[in-house]
Structure formats: C-alpha cells, structure tokens
Design a protein that fits this description.
heterotrimer; A alpha/beta; B mainly alpha; C mainly alpha; A: alpha/beta; six-stranded mixed sheet; 20 strands; 33% helix; globular; B: mainly alpha; two-stranded antiparallel sheet
Chain lengths: 524, 318, 335
C-alpha cells in the first residue's frame, strides 16, 4: 500500500486527521466470469487514504466489470470485499454509496428538472436528510445542507440553480457533491473515509473545465480517496498518485506514478507489443471503390472523414469509446443523419439516404447491440434470416425460406439446427451468426460490421471472422469496428485510427506494418 | 419440430379457445336452455361488430401501438351509412369504407410524421369523431329510410344457424391471419412489434407499415359500422355501437394479442370476441346485475392485459 | 438519459428556460383569446356574468386537473376520471339527503365520496405498478369499472335528486365575488401546489417523471409513490364528481362526460408534457382557462356546442405534437 505522505491543510472530514491509516478498500481474490468468459480474474487491490488511483486499460480489459463489482451492480463469484475495515456485500450503486463508496459516471444521473440542492439531498438514501424529514421539504435547511456539501468540495454552484441550466462540468460537480454527501457521512460514522470513483470524467470536458475537475480531485483527496478511470494518459500521469493497469481481466501493474512515462503506460496496457499475426497477401486496390466518403461531418460526433472502401478489402477502424466511429458507420448506413460531406456508393452520389435505400444500394450493417438492433426475438431464426425485403413481390415462400435457412444453418454451423425456433432462444453466438447470414445471403457490396464479436465465445468468434474474410474474398468492401486492436490488426487490410471524431492515422498493410502500440499511440 | 414445446406458446395457441370453451361450458350448465334456443345466433350477432373492431385493433397492437379511436370511427361509419344509404344505395357502403379507411390512414400519417404516442393521438381522434358524430346527426337518431336491403342481409341471412356477417368476419380474421403469416408486409408488421429498431435497420418500411396498420384499423371499424346499421337500421351518437371501445380491446387481448406488440393471432381474436359477447349472458347466469356489465368489461380488460403482458420484457412501464 | 445542453449554457438560454417555466406563452394565449372574443362579441363576452360562467365551468376540470397533472408529471396517465367521477358522484348523492331516501349520513357523505375515488385511484395505481401494466390501459379499464359502479348505484329507480337546497345552490353563489365552485377549485389548486412544492410526494413525482431509471437507482420507492399519486388523483376526480352532482342537483352516472378530453388537453396545453417531469397544477389552471374561454367564446360566436369534444381532441393532439416536436428523430421508437 502506498501512502503519499503529503501534508494536509485543514482536512475537511474530521476523521481524516486520524493517523491510524486503515485502508478504505481492500479486495482480495475478487473474480467474475460471464459464462465461459472470465471478465475479471482473481484480483487483489488495496486503496489507502488520500490516494488518487489511475485505473487504465484497453477497451475490454475488464475495467468496467471491476467498476460494476465495486458498485454492487454485479456480484463477485469469489473473493472478499472490505470497505473501511468491514466486509460488505453491496446490493447496488445506492447501497454502495451508503457504504461510503460513490461512483460518478460519464453518463450523468441527475434530475435535470430539479435544483442542485434537491439532487444532492435526494441521494441521501432511505433515511433521508434532516431537511426533508417527515416527507416535508424545508427549503432553507435544504439549501444550507447542500451549500455545506458544495463548500466542502469547493464548488461555487448555487444550490437553488436548476441542474438543466448548468454546463456539463458543473453538473459533474453536483454529481460528485451528491456522492460525497452520503459517502462521507457513512464513512465518518464508521470511522473511515469515503472513496469516489470517477469513470471517464474528462472525456467530454473542455480544457478549462478539466482544470476545475483537477482542483476538485485535490479536494476529494483531502477527504478520502479517488479512483480515476480515464483514457487520457497524460491526465492520469498528472492527476494520480498511483497507477493500476488492467489487461485481459488481470491487474498487471500497480505502482506509484513517480518516474512513469506515457510510453510505459502504453506498454503496460498492451503487454507484448505485436504486429499482425498473419502476413497474407493484401488484396490489390481495384480502380473503383465501392464506397467513397469525402468530408463527412456530423456535429458533435465526427468531422471531415475521408474514407474509401474497395472490393475485397477489409478496412478496420479503431478508436476509444467516444471517438465517433460508431456514429460514423451508422451515418454511412443511413441510420443517423449527416450534417455535411459527400457519399458515393458504387460511383453514384447519394442524395437521400436511409437504411432501406442503403440496403437497396448494396450496403449491409451488423449493429453492435444485437438484442436491441438486429435480432428480432419472437420471430423464428428462419424469418430473421429472410427478413430483409427483396424486390420479389409480396408473398413469402415458406419452402424457399426453409431451403435458405437450411443452407445457411449448415454453412455457418448454427446450432441447434432448428430454423423454425424463436431466435431469442438461440445462444448469443448463434443469434449473431443468424444475423450475419441475413446480410451475407444478399451478397452485399459493402458490409459494415459494428463490433461483430461482442459477447461471443472464441469458437463462434472464429466462425464469424472466417465469414468476414470470405465475404471480402467474394468482393465485398468490408468496414470493421473491432473490439480489440489485435482483432483489427489480424483482419484489417487497411486500418484507420479515429480520435475525437477525426481520423488521426491511416495504415495500409501493403506498405505499413503497424503494431498494437502504434495504433494505441494514435488513439489516445 | 417441437414448435409448441413451451408453456407460453401453448397458452398463446390454445388459451383463447380454452377460455371461451370454459365460459360456454359454465353457461351451458347454468342456463341449459340458452344453447338450444336462439342463443348462439344472438351471441354471434353481438360478437360480430366487436370482432371486426378487435381485428383492426389487433393489427395496431401488433406494431406496438394502440388505436383508441376505432370504436368511435365505427360509430361514425354507421352514422355515415345511415345518412348515405338512401341517396347512394349500393355505393353507400363502399363510400363509408373509403372515408373511414382514410381516417385511419390519416391517424397513421400523423403518427409517423409527428412521432407522438399513439394513445394520445387516437384519444384526440376519438374526441374529433365523437364531435363529428354529434354534428353530422344534429344529436338525433338517423333512421335508414331506403335501400335497407343493401346491408340488411348481413344479419337476416343465416348459415349454419349463425348470421352470415359473423362468417364473413371469421373469413376476414383468417385472411388477416394469413396476411400476417405469409406476406412480406405482414411479417414486417410483426417484426416492428417485436423489435422496431431491428426492423428498421433491416430495411423494413416501418413508417409505411404503421400507416397500413392504422388504415386497416379504420377499414375494419367501417365494416363494424355497417354491421351496426344492418342490425339496428338506425344510428346515433349514443345508440348501438357507441360502447365498442373497451369490449373490442378486451376481445383483442383475451384473444391473446400482446399489448407490447408482435404477438397477434387474428383467429384467436374470434374466440376473444365471442368470449366478450358471452359476458352479459354469463354474468346474468351467475347472478350479476346487468348494469354491472361495464364493471365486468373493465375487469376483463385489466385481467387480460395483466395476464398476457410478456414478463420477459423488463424495464420501465409507464 | 440526461440530455446535454452543451457546456456553455448561456444567459439567454437560462432566460428562455425561466420564461418557459413561468408559463408566459400560455398566459399570452389566454389573454389573446380574451382579446379576440371580446372584439368578436363585445356585448356578450366581456361581461361579469359571462366571466362567472367561464370560471364556474372551469372549476370542475381544474379540480380534476390538479390530481391528473400530478399523475402526468410522473409520465403516467389517468384515463379513468369520468368513471371515478360517476362512481363517487353517485355514492355522494345516495349517501346524502335525496329524493330516493336511501341513506343520509350528513356531511360524512363528502369524505365517503372522496374515499371511493381514492380507492379506485389506488387500485389503478397498484395494478399498474405491481403487475407492470401500462397505466393508460389499466385506467381505461378502471374508467369502465367506475361507470359500472355508478350504473349499479343508479339502478332502475327514478333519478335521485339532492334534498339539500343550500348545498345545491352553493357552487354558483358568489359571496366572494367569484363563484364558490371556482374558489373551491383555487383552494384545491393551492393544496396541489403545496404538495408539488413542499412534500416528498410532489418532489419525487418530478424526479420520477424526469428520469425514472435514475429515480430507481437513487433508491426512490417508485411503485409506492405512484400508487399514492393515483390515489390522490382519484380523490380529486371524486371531488369533481361531488361538485358535478351538486351542479346537477341530482345523481347521474354520466356526470363526468367530456371531462377526460378537456382535462388532458388542458394539462398538455398548460405546459405539462405527457412525458412528465415538468409543469404542474398551476400550469394546468392556465390550460383549463384557455379551453374554457375558447369554448365559451366559440359558443357565443354561434358555433355548435356539440363540437366541444372535437375541439378538445384537436387541442390535445396539437399540444402533444408541439411538446414533442423537437424530439423527432430517425429510427426513434414511438409506440
């Protein structure tokens, strides 16, 4: 355990003065699996007082699962979990806060129609606060109570302001205040200190706002400890006192920040830096791209995107969460509007665009959120497979559907081999194969895949990857949003890196041989 | 293939006929003379308008919306028919059906263009239709003076002891069933009900199909209105057919239609409608005050929707 | 999830927000209607008698609206108002001195009627919250249940006329310069405002309507509050049923006819969107006054009174469209 030993002026929680440094959080052997996938392998972590811990890791390294374990959204399969010296079993985020562990998400959870004071006091738990006891609101006491909490973290927001009128950074302060309000009270009562988790707090902040947040974190550190989750490594190095790195569900590094460089962090996140696994021949670029985009822009999501998809080639886009690649591929398919730019499919400029028109023009799109956007549970697998309308009249042909379903069930090894069964009753991997077959049978010109391997076991993943390669070999231009950098390197013939809505690097495998580290450096 | 291997599939397929059979059995025991006399014909006659309105409703429920206006549209159609049968003769039913189908289509167009909740929109349409009925009739009863024979045969001609209109409604239910199962737009309607976003991203013409559903709802309401005029020979804003809304929704729900969308079997709605039509007889048989009928309708509606709500879908219900 | 209004929400945006919260636009509509009808009909419209007529007509929908807007604030809807009015109104008449001489429990008839309404409302809320059935369909069923109860109470006998002449004359009397019914409505509005402003019940209604997911995460017992709110709405409808019966001087199962459209339209046009989270009882008063003025003015101009439900329907749809216009988007799921 690392104690920073920085002298504190005027600690704000009385308890912080105690010099007996009991750890706030102690995890030992905490583990969580989803089916066969181990999301968090047995992990041990201790958080002392007055620490700011930077938790970093690639997408899918297990950070978010760890956070969900910490806040009681998921229950651990094994291991012990101690808060301020007591073993706990948390029932959910609210319960966690009442135990002195608060989390502030990037997606804010405030009531935008209520005042700052109400939001802060609303989180006071089942017992409520003194100013709303008996179900009656004493507004003056309520404002005073909130003002005290706000003063504690040095915020100047007025308690009477409606949250909807605040800017994003100010709302974040309110969230922190709300969390602190309860967490600090509990921690004080139990003779401990609060722990606040900030999940990607800076990704939507402007620079000046980030400075305010840093000030805030310094204040929080005087009260308790902070776990700071971020993709922005230079901030992690500047703000944190200690770095914890996760990779493939394991805690691979836990060390003080002193002497660590950004390059070290990259290496720790990636593990062994590597090139693409295979060095197969990259298909040549034919003269005409099947899809050409120029200057594509959508305010707040991406801007000035140039993109050419060639038949037979797989283009992978990598980027952190929020880099805008999801919005980009949805706009290419017509599922979201475009604010500007030029889009050409097979040499023809696109004026009006919608999923229906895109499908007619030969595009196919496999959404990331299978349950919400691609698999129609309630309809049979065979009906899902044949659902995309074709210009073959109004009548369905049960015999044709059966034949087609049988063909694709055997081609993709979909199990159980019951095409008439409700799709919702298939496993995730087999659902994904059915959805993929729905598009592949149309022989699309352009195949857009948004995280095609999400939630699949390795076997199903290999089949899906083989399908993607086969579709490219048959002449489709493939656009892939991969889950991991390795996946992008292994599948992509061309790799684009997106950062903050722009393409920050392009690697063509005919000439370049990028490593995972090269990609990561351009991402963050 | 083990298609009916799960209890909920069994319930969906055989629940409605079973519920109807149970009620019928109870009545047969309590009031044996009911089945022997003209009882079945009367029930079939009362079930027909309910069934027709419910068929339209079940298509709208299938896309996950609801049409609170179609019963009022049915009443408006009967008023329109009463007014036009004299001057237009055999063309009057066609005219009425076209008008009310267009009203349904207008509902659908406003819905997809403004994206407001369907219950709010159709509640508004309900108000407009009520007002239209009052204004068109001048708040009086409109009697059919001429050409009653254009629609009269629907309930005077009988087939297998039941009115021919009932059989026509059953055939229409079968046609609707086939439409949903065996046609491209029908499958699209079901897909929208199960998963609207996935349907849209698979290229289903979601907006057009929603307009189609509301158009069908208007059309079936028009048929129900013609039945009302055929039965009574007169129409008014408070007369026969003014109370079809809750019975028809109850019929659709007892018929196994899920209010969450996707699940819809028009053939079972036939049993739902007959069940609802039996309620007055059944409640009289067990000694319920006839004036308590609307309590029974309301309770059946609530129980049917609570029993058919898919528990699989979690989340917030408002 | 929370909508982001950007990081730099300027002073102008804040001012717009304040204006919207205060309901300036709705008041402007009301004043404009008054001005227009005064010009169209300078002899009959802008008179004290007509003002009292408008206010007296507005009293019942305002009382219903106080409860119903609390329900709408949570994002739910209560379609049962006409049924609850009928059931509670009939219960009130039969428990008061009346021509059928059923039972006379004196002033206790008032709380008894309110209890009938609160019970029906609580039943709606409980079925909705516990069985997870959409509120519009439960309350649609409850509408019929209420009408059925009223019909059973009405029975086959003669119309029960109220015996207490003073009580019957009370609503339209104007000892305070305004009709008593309207004064009573204002008292109920004040009560509603106090609930919305100073009690956990009201504040949580706003919170639930704004973001129910967060409300659950925050540990608010949503189901319990929803049941309580429906019960309160039922009691408001019941009071409206009593007022309607007093106005008729007799019991009737259809005492509430037409009130559902009027109230819903008034709520939405007043500035409480069906999605919930904004608005409240005070805003609904403006909405009811707009609609009452509109009907009154139209009838004085010579329009057929039977179009009232049509006007309500159009206003309802127009107000819902206006409130939701900015949220339209491609691939948005709307039911």
């Amino acid at each position: 355990m690392i104690q920073t030993g920085i002298p504190l002026q005027a600690p704000l929680c009385p308890d912080a003065r105690q010099d007996r440094p009991a750890p706030i959080l102690r995890l030992s052997g905490l583990a969580k699996s989803f089916g066969p996938v181990a999301a968090v392998k047995p992990l041990t972590l201790t958080v002392g007082r007055h620490e700011v811990i930077g938790l970093i890791g690639e997408n899918g390294a297990g950070k978010s699962t760890l956070l969900k374990l910490l806040t009681g959204v998921h229950q651990p399969d094994a291991g012990t979990f101690e808060l301020n010296g007591r073993q706990v079993r948390l029932k959910g985020p609210q319960d966690a806060t009442e135990h002195g562990l608060g989390i502030v998400h990037q997606e804010q959870s405030l009531f935008t129609n209520l005042s700052v004071a109400e939001n802060i006091v609303m989180g006071a738990g089942r017992k409520g606060s003194a100013s709303t006891r008996g179900g009656l609101y004493r507004w003056r006491a309520l404002h005073r109570e909130a003002a005290e909490v706000l003063a504690r973290i040095g915020s100047t927001v007025s308690p009477a302001t409606i949250v909807g009128d605040l800017g994003f950074a100010e709302r974040q302060m309110v969230e922190i205040a709300r969390t602190i309000h309860v967490a600090c009270r509990t921690a004080e009562r139990q003779g401990g200190a609060p722990l606040v988790i900030l999940d990607e707090p800076t990704s939507v902040l402007e620079e000046a706002e980030t400075a305010v947040l840093e000030h805030e974190i310094a204040r929080l550190r005087a009260i308790g400890s902070v776990i700071f989750v971020s993709h922005r490594l230079e901030e992690v190095l500047r703000i944190c006192t200690r770095i914890v790195v996760m990779r493939h569900g394991e805690l691979v590094a836990d060390r003080p920040v002193e002497g660590v460089t950004e390059a070290d962090l990259f290496r720790m996140m990636i593990g062994k830096d590597r090139h693409a696994r295979t060095r197969e021949a990259v298909p040549p670029m034919t003269a005409a791209p099947v899809l050409r985009a120029e200057g594509l822009t959508r305010t707040g999501a991406f801007r000035d995107i140039r993109l050419d998809l060639h038949p037979g080639r797989i283009t992978a886009i990598v980027g952190t969460f929020g880099a805008g690649r999801e919005a980009l591929v949805r706009a290419l398919f017509g599922a979201e509007p475009l604010d500007g730019g030029r889009l050409e499919v097979a040499g023809r400029a696109v004026a009006q665009w919608s999923p229906r028109l895109a499908i007619r023009a030969g595009l196919a799109y496999l959404p990331a959120e299978r349950g919400v956007e691609s698999a129609v549970g309630g309809l049979s697998a065979a009906r899902n497979l044949t659902m995309v309308p074709q210009d073959r009249g109004w009548l369905l042909s049960p015999a044709g559907r059966r034949a087609l379903a049988e063909e694709w069930f055997s081609r993709l090894d979909i199990r159980p081999n019951l095409p008439g069964q409700d799709l919702a009753r298939f496993s995730g991997g087999n659902q994904q194969k059915v959805v993929l077959a729905k598009w592949l049978r149309l022989k699309p010109r352009v195949l857009i895949l948004d995280h095609p391997l999400r939630g699949l076991d390795p076997g199903a993943g290999a089949t899906v990857n083989a399908c993607i390669r086969a579709a490219a070999a048959e002449g489709a231009g493939v656009l892939l949003l991969a889950d991991t950098l390795e996946e992008a390197l292994d599948l992509g013939h061309e790799i684009l890196v997106m950062r903050d809505g722009e393409i920050s690097a392009r690697f063509d495998r005919t000439t370049d041989d990028p490593t995972t580290l090269d990609l990561l450096e351009k991402m963050v | 293939m083990k298609l009916l291997s799960r209890p909920d599939e069994l319930r969906q397929a055989f629940g409605p006929p079973a519920i109807f059979a149970i009620l019928l059995g109870l009545i047969a025991v309590a009031v044996p003379e009911f089945l022997g006399g003209g009882g079945p014909a009367i029930i079939a006659q009362q079930a027909t308008p309910i069934l027709l309105v419910a068929l339209g409703q079940c298509v709208v429920l299938c896309i996950g919306s609801i049409d609170l206006s179609n019963a009022a549209i049915a009443l408006f159609a009967s008023i329109l028919a009463a007014l036009t049968l004299g001057p237009l003769g055999a063309a009057a039913p066609v005219f009425c059906l076209i008008v009310v189908t267009l009203i349904g289509v207008a509902n659908g167009l406003v819905l997809v263009y403004t994206q407001i909740p369907s219950f709010a929109l159709t509640l508004g349409t309900l108000g407009v239709m009520q007002a239209a009925s009052l204004v068109v009739t001048g708040s009086n009863v409109v009697y059919v003076m001429d050409n009653m024979d254009v629609v009269g045969w629907l309930f005077t001609v009988q087939f297998l002891t039941l009115p021919v209109a009932f059989w026509i409604a059953v055939v229409l239910a079968a046609a609707l069933w086939a439409f949903l199962r065996f046609t491209v737009p029908g499958q699209g309607v079901m897909a929208i009900g199960f998963n609207e976003r996935a349907a849209g991203l698979s290229g289903q013409p979601v907006n057009a199909l929603k307009v189609l559903a509301f158009g069908l709802s208007g059309f079936f309401a028009g048929l129900a209105g013609l039945c009302v005029i055929s039965i009574s020979g007169a129409a008014s804003s408070i007369g026969l057919g003014s109370d079809l809304l809750v019975p028809s929704i109850a019929a659709a729900l007892v018929g196994g239609t899920a209010i969450t969308g996707g699940v819809c079997n028009p053939l079972n709605v036939v049993f739902g409608a007959m069940f609802v039509a039996l309620i007055p007889v059944g409640s009289a048989a067990v000694g319920v005050n006839p004036q308590a009928q609307s309590i029974v309708y309301g309770v059946v509606l609530i129980v049917a929707v609570a029993a058919t709500m898919s528990r699989a879908r979690h989340g917030i219900v408002k | 999830m929370t909508s982001l209004s950007g990081t730099g929400s300027g002073r102008a945006a804040r001012r717009r927000g304040l204006a919207a919260r205060a309901g300036v636009a709705e008041l402007a509509i009301l004043l404009a209607l008054v001005a227009i009808f005064s010009m169209l009909n300078p002899h009959a419209f802008p008179t004290l008698t007509n003002l009292n007529t408008i206010l007296n007509n507005a009293a019942i929908p305002i009382v219903i609206g106080v409860g119903a807007s609390l329900v709408v604030l949570t994002g739910r809807i209560d379609l049962s108002v006409e049924g609850v009015m009928g059931a509670a109104g009939m219960a009130f008449v039969l428990l008061s001195a009346n021509s059928r001489e059923t039972a006379d429990i004196g002033w206790l008839a008032y709380p008894a009627a309110l209890a009938v309404g609160a019970g029906l409302g609580a039943a709606t809320g409980a079925i909705h919250a516990l069985a997870k059935v959409p509120s519009f369909i439960v309350s649609l069923g409850m509408w019929y249940v209420g009408l059925g109860i009223a019909a059973v109470l009405f029975g086959y006998e003669m119309i029960p006329f109220l015996g207490n002449e003073a009580a019957v004359a009370w609503p339209t009397a104007t000892p305070l310069g305004l009709p008593n019914s309207f004064v009573l409505a204002l008292v109920v509005v004040g009560l509603g405002w106090l609930i919305e402003r100073y009690t956990r019940l009201g504040r949580y209604a706003y919170a639930i309507g704004n973001n129910e997911t967060v409300a659950r995460m925050t540990g608010i017992p949503v189901a319990g509050f929803v049941v309580a709110i429906f019960a309160f709405a039922g009691a408001c409808s019941a009071l409206a049923g009593v007022m309607g019966s007093l106005a008729l001087g007799a019991g009737s199962a259809t005492v509430g006819v037409g009130m559902l459209f009027l109230t819903l339209a008034a709520i939405v046009i007043g500035g409480t969107p069906l999605g919930g989270g904004r608005g409240g009882a005070l805003r609904t008063v403006t909405g009811v006054l707009i609609l009452s003025t509109l009907y009154n003015g139209l009838i004085l101009v010579g329009v057929d009174p039977s179009i009232q439900s049509g006007v309500s329907g159009i206003v309802l749809v127009a107000a819902v469209i206006a409130a939701g216009w900015s949220q339209r988007a491609r691939l948005r799921v709307f039911k």
